[in-house]
Automatic annotation (TrEMBL):
Classification via SUPFAM superfamilies: P-loop containing nucleoside triphosphate hydrolases
InterPro entries the UniProt entry points to: AAA+_ATPase (IPR003593), ABC_tran_Xtn (IPR032781), ABC_transporter-like_ATP-bd (IPR003439), ABC_transporter-like_CS (IPR017871), ABCF_ATPase (IPR051309), P-loop_NTPase (IPR027417), Val-tRNA_synth_C_sf (IPR037118)
Segments of this protein annotated with the region Disordered: 541-570
PROSITE patterns membership: ABC_TRANSPORTER_1 (PS00211), ABC_TRANSPORTER_2 (PS50893)
Coiled coil, from the record: 576-643
Protein name listed in UniProt: Probable ATP-binding protein YbiT
Classification via Pfam families: ABC_tran, ABC_tran_Xtn
Keyword Repeat in annotation: yes
UniProt record similarity statement: Belongs to the ABC transporter superfamily. ABCF family. YbiT subfamily.
Start and end residues of each ABC transporter domain: 2-260, 328-542
Keywords: ATP-binding, Coiled coil, Nucleotide-binding, Repeat
An example molecular function term from Gene Ontology annotations: ATP hydrolysis activity
Amino acid sequence: MISIHNLTVDFGSRLLFDQVSFVINRRDRIALVGKNGAGKSTLLKLIAGLEEPTSGHVSRPKDIRIGYLPQVMQLKDGNTVYEEVEQAFDDIRRIEEEVARLTDEMAGRTDYDSEGYAQLIEHYTNMSETLALMQQGNYHATIEQSLIGLGFERKDFRRPTSDFSGGWRMRIELAKLLLQRPEVLLLDEPTNHLDIESIGWLEQFIASNAGAVILVSHDRAFIDNTTIRTIEIELGHIYDYKTNYSHYVKLREERLQQQLRAYENQQKMIRETEDFIERFRYKATKSVQVQSRIKQLEKVERVEIDERDRSAFHFRFIPAQPSGSYPVTIEGLSKAYGDHVVFSDATYTIARGEKVAFVGKNGAGKSTMVKCIMGELTDYTGKLALGHNVELGYFAQNEAQELRGDLTVYDTIDREAVGDIRLRLNDLLGAFLFGGEASEKKVSVLSGGERARLAIIRLLLQPANFLILDEPTNHLDMRSKDVLKEAIRNFEGTVIVVSHDREFLDGLVTKVYEFADGRVNEHLGGIYDYLQTRRMQTLTELERSRPEESKSSREAVPETESKADYRRQKENAKQLRALERAVTACEEKIEALETQLQSIEQQLQDPKNAADTALFEQYAGVKQELESVLEEWESASEALSEVQASSSEA
């Protein structure tokens, strides 16, 4: 569908791409990965036609619709949220004209068995389906579903876009872009400002979207769940694998190991051949063999090992004296802004050395809770106490904006560093992509992502025994996140992480505090234990408004282990039966809908039905219903597999 051929981008002092070639096919799901600065965003702009290469070219079909979501957007105000998103349907007149043109073209053609006619039918079907959705007024429901899926509430629909922060306005643009249904969707870091629930909604949308999707993201879980092809950009070259990122990493490592073994074997053969040549070069009796070996060497196709950027760094937080046993204790804490209750009756204690996550929708109170703990907010009710000898290290969402613009990158870090780490400042800066000349840049000229990385480095250098990190990974690439994650994992103090990055939280936290509906609920276990619990509750319709827990219930004596095991087994059996019924019902419905589609498709192959609008609308409706049931079947099947696995382990 889109062909990239011998693409070269040369900035003079730096070769970004060196004769890169690949093809984007219809319905491809591609993840572009690589270090910050490798050229991922530039490649998206080249595909979108917003920039031109130094040489080579990008071939696109004439009428292809490409939707592009950049990291930084210039947004115009003046509309409400709903009015802004509704602009996605402004092209209804153009689609009407296209449907009329296609109808005329079909009526004038007789090559009914040709591939071109089949493509014409498919294009007509897609256009008619979109037009039918618009004309029936259903697009209003689609707009509402998209906005709610991305975290908006109905009361937000009529608010002006100027009321919202940059992150929420990015969601407005994302909703508008998704509703335009382009054939190719280019997304540059779409999850940076989304919470876990909205990321899940976006994953489902991409999975059911019929067009090609090329995305840049440093969220491993997101790209694993949405893509089936990985293109890694490294040192000007690309490595293209038809698999998701996690599997690609394994395959890439295997390939490099095979290359290394082949290289070593070939080098051994070359050395032995050269030794033979040198040993017998001047012996007449061996002249034939020597000439043969020389020709053999000339014909050898040398094995090359892929060049890799292996820059990496391991770092530990500067330790402080241990805190008391309980760095923070909260009892009956409530916070409201006027009539709006952010959270109420929050009660929990975090022990020394625990690493916990705060999760929930944006605006649910996570950052407000952090500000209470930090002492930035004091107009709350209830009790909040910090433990003995607590030394806080804090990374705020706006931390990057607090850096002094008149200092260089190196000076900013040099002012914070003490002790032996001063000897390794260049290594630390290099690990976060500030090596060489980049360390001499003024902070005032850094991008938002660069400022965020610099703020993380500064935090790493501050002695602390209690870290609070509010969305620390938004602008970090995978390797920089690995450096930070390893440092947090090895940190002996206490950590609170506010994050939507599931892969970053996986294996890092042992407790999750969910902020939802004005309450703070504690979940024991890691992030995927929490997500599995939430998924189970949703699929089995167990996720209802939680009743207020009485004080007596919170102080109740825990169940015995055997009784708890029995209850778990009983609940698993109940869930298993419900999910088996749901899967069976979906499969039966899918079979019926597929049969119905086949029947309509046979009718559409008849030339006399080529202009039958009602038949095409029926086809579009059945197809849409089938996609919905397929999504339901996939969710139920996944949940069933998880319950079966947990039951067998028990």
